[in-house]
Amino acid sequence: MPPRGRRPGRPDTREHLVATARAMFAEGGYDKTSLRDIAAAAEVDPALIRHYFGSKADLFRATVGWPFDPEQFGARILDTDGGSLAERLTRVFFELWEHPDTRAPLLAILRGAATHEESATLVRQFIEQRIYPQIATALTGTDAEFRVDLAMGQLLGIAYLRHILRIEPIASQPTEELIARAVSAVRVHLDGPGLR
């Protein structure tokens, strides 16, 4: 039985839990990895994980380094008061990428996923299980998640050109100009062929 409370002699318990969880999530996936499994591997009581992170979802978010809550992200996109779904998705996406507090972690995530398989696995699981399904619920048709993939690919491509490669003139365009131009492409993907 794992010892209770803080691991003795280790002031870095939180970091140890994140590292252990990251490896286990990458190997077994989100659904197949329990807090008890992580606690056993880290040699701590499961209550310590809840103390530091609150829930499995929050621990998973910490392992990925995700800088925003996916439920709040989804709620803003699904809030029908602010234009079409394409407009809301595009605006929220660019707000996250243009704010320095969220841009830096998003850049780190994107770079890490491009060069490190474990990071790519975690990011893929996070996106597929915690973000895309929320957006897909607002769409009709059998290929809703595929259409979300295409729309997000459009937006991520712009973010990549703007913030990683810094290709001009996209790198220096005003955010509102990018939003105005990207919305129509995002709308085409979300609506899908024959659904407009």
TrEMBL record:
Limits of the HTH tetR-type domain: 11-71
Protein name: TetR/AcrR family transcriptional regulator
PROSITE patterns, per database record: HTH_TETR_2
InterPro entries linked to this entry: HTH-type_TetR-like_transc_reg, HTH_TetR, TetR_C_16
Source species: [Mycobacterium] fortunisiensis
Keywords: DNA-binding
A Pfam family hit: TetR_C_16
Keyword Cell inner membrane among UniProt keywords: no
Alphabetized PANTHER family for the sequence: HTH-TYPE TRANSCRIPTIONAL REGULATOR RUTR (PTHR30055), TRANSCRIPTIONAL REGULATORY PROTEIN (PTHR30055:SF235)
